[in-house]
């Protein structure tokens, strides 16, 4: 492939909006909806803050960080979220840079890791993967990457903290290729690292960008330019030039198609803390990252540039205002243009609702969204009407596919101190499952339900809310299973037989789909071996 990075600098060449002239197509093609995936401490917060600074969304560095560490006094979040400093106001951040509208969706990386984190990744079109240059790929990065891979989300890699002790850049590339089975295309090459990190060399258009200096950088003739000799110790220059020729040959040039298909990642090196390399990332998002994708629905594919508005709810945040029991539903606009006040159909119930107060979120504030376009993420306040996966349309019955559930890693039973209120508990659990706080599995033999979560903090949130909101004092107990798997079979008779035989370890989720409650991982693999006619899955409904 002889395409070079510069050939591809035309914005969004294959935007679905292409061919449909007018404002709608233009608005949609200039949107980039993305997330940052990283292991805790890799620098996601620092990078977010610097990205927002470029976008003018915040005035001063330190504000996102302050939000993470301190309480938000303006808003009265739920007690537990306050005490842990979880920031819900930054669930999505909208900002503009170079005539591009960015929607940055937050994926909590710390102990508040949850089902929400996974679901959020279903609402983005691309992601930036931040890697700590000293630590390489870490467990959480890997997990989040695997979720991105399910949908072939294009990934831009940022190797951060070059200003500190770092692994060899070639080793880092090798690690990405091997661990993630992802091709790499370095776009810049670091000059020195740690205390001697001087900047980067742009591999496509020979140019040096110096740390802490004018980001435009200085054009050079190529890797042999004598300027480079002045930046390194004499014994370092030779190996550096060899490396550059190696990465230029071996990695070849950046291939936009492979990136868009999720099989190749452009790699940038920098330091978020020193605000170095951050603009490279924004430029990469503008030039290479895809505009809003088309969205698969049960009956057809909804194109982003269609005139009619459609949207999907992918996250629900409760208790934004405890006095009103409001819930904020986060909706990705999938097609068309949303205008404030428009009437939409909630497809699940067939009822009509008015979008009277859709909201945009910024680093610090929110504001009413007078209009929004495909790719945008808006908050829709509602009182428990909207659920995860809901479609809102201008009238068409559309069921969107692709908000997956992931097999929870933590499973519990709930002990209710007051048995008389079992019915209330049942209702409360169903509501929280609809909201996506927990996954709920009702055993087919009628025994106590099992709740499942991805992150331990979700259990605290569940316990806290059952007590405070529903007045149900509960305790968690061990569940009779270690893990769960959804199962199905093309062979109806075999499925029936399996259901009968394993009745005591089978439950149904909120949608009525069957799960196998595996008492142990060992049991799971032996059951799978014994029943090749049954398909087991740890993810539900991805396409
Ligand atoms: P996270 O959201 O991914 O968890 O990471 P965060 O940005 O909070 O960064 C984790 C730590 O790494 C912070 O230091 C931050 O200042 C530091 N850091 C981030 N990017 C860089 C970088 O490019 N170079 C260097 N040298 N450090 C970086 P901390 O000591 O935990 O917090 P703070 O006391 O500095 O606020």
TrEMBL record:
Residues 1-24 are annotated as: Disordered. It is found in: Cytoplasm. SUPFAM superfamilies: EF-G C-terminal domain-like, P-loop containing nucleoside triphosphate hydrolases, Translation proteins. Pfam families: EF-G_D2, GTP_EFTU, RF3_C. PROSITE patterns: G_TR_1, G_TR_2. Residues 29-293 form the Tr-type G domain. Residues 1-11 have a biased composition (Basic and acidic residues). Keywords: Cytoplasm, GTP-binding, Nucleotide-binding, Protein biosynthesis. NCBIfam families: prfC (TIGR00503), PRK00741.1 (NF001964), small_GTP (TIGR00231). Increases the formation of ribosomal termination complexes and stimulates activities of RF-1 and RF-2. It binds guanine nucleotides and has strong preference for UGA stop codons. It may interact directly with the ribosome. The stimulation of RF-1 and RF-2 is significantly reduced by GTP and GDP, but not by GMP. Belongs to the TRAFAC class translation factor GTPase superfamily. Classic translation factor GTPase family. PrfC subfamily. This is Peptide chain release factor 3. It comes from Filomicrobium insigne. The gene is prfC.
């Amino acid at each position: 492939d002889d395409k070079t990075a510069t050939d591809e600098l035309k914005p969004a060449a294959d935007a679905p909006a292409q061919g449909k002239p007018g404002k709608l197509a233009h608005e949609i093609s200039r949107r980039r909806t993305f997330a940052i995936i990283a292991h805790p401490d890799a620098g996601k917060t620092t990078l977010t803050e610097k990205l927002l600074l470029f976008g003018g969304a915040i005035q001063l560095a330190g504000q996102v960080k302050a939000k993470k560490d301190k309480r938000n006094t303006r808003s009265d979040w739920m007690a537990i979220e306050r005490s842990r400093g979880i920031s819900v106001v930054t669930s999505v951040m909208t900002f503009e840079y170079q005539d591009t509208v960015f929607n940055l969706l937050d994926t909590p990386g710390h102990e508040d890791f949850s089902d929400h984190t996974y679901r959020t990744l279903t609402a983005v079109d691309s992601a930036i993967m931040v890697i700590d240059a000293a630590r390489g790929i870490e467990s959480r990065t890997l997990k989040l990457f695997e979720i991105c891979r399910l949908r072939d989300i294009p990934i831009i890699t940022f190797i951060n903290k070059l200003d500190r002790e770092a692994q060899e850049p070639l080793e880092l590339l090798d690690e990405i290729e091997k661990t993630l089975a992802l091709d790499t295309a370095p776009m810049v090459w670091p000059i020195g690292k740690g205390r001697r990190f001087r900047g980067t060399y742009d591999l496509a258009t020979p140019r040096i960008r110096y740390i802490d200096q004018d980001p435009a950088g200085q054009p050079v003739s190529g890797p042999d330019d004598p300027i480079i000799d002045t930046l390194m110790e004499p014994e370092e220059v030779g190996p550096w030039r060899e490396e550059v020729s190696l990465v230029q040959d071996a990695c070849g040039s950046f291939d936009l198609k492979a990136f868009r298909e999720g099989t190749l990642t452009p790699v940038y090196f920098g330091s978020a803390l020193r605000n170095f390399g951050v603009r490279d990332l924004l430029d990469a998002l503008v030039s290479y990252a895809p505009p809003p994708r088309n969205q698969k629905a049960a009956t057809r594919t909804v194109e982003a540039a269609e005139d009619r508005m459609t949207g999907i709810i992918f996250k629900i945040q409760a208790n934004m205002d405890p006095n009103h029991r409001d819930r904020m539903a986060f909706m990705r606009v999938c097609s068309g243009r949303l205008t404030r006040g428009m009437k939409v159909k909630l497809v699940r119930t067939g009822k009509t609702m008015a979008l009277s107060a859709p909201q945009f979120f910024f680093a610090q504030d929110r504001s009413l969204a007078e209009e929004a376009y495909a790719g945008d993420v808006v908050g829709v306040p509602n009182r428990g009407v909207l659920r995860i996966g809901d479609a809102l349309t201008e009238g068409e019955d559309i069921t969107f596919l692709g908000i997956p559930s992931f097999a929870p890693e933590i499973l519990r039973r709930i002990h209710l101190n007051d048995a008389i209120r079992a019915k209330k508990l049942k209702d409360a659990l169903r509501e929280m499952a609809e909201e996506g706080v927990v996954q709920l599995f009702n055993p087919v033999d009628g025994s106590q339900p099992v709740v499942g979560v991805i992150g331990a903090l979700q259990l605290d949130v569940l316990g806290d809310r059952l007590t405070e909101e529903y007045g149900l004092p509960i305790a968690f107990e061990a569940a009779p299973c270690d893990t769960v798997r959804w199962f199905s079979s093309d062979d109806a008779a075999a499925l029936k037989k399996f259901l009968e035989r394993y009745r005591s370890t089978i439950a149904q989720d909120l949608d009525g789909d069957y799960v196998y409650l595996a008492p142990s991982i060992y049991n799971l693999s032996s059951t799978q071996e014994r029943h090749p006619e049954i398909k087991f899955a740890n993810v539900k409904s991805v396409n």
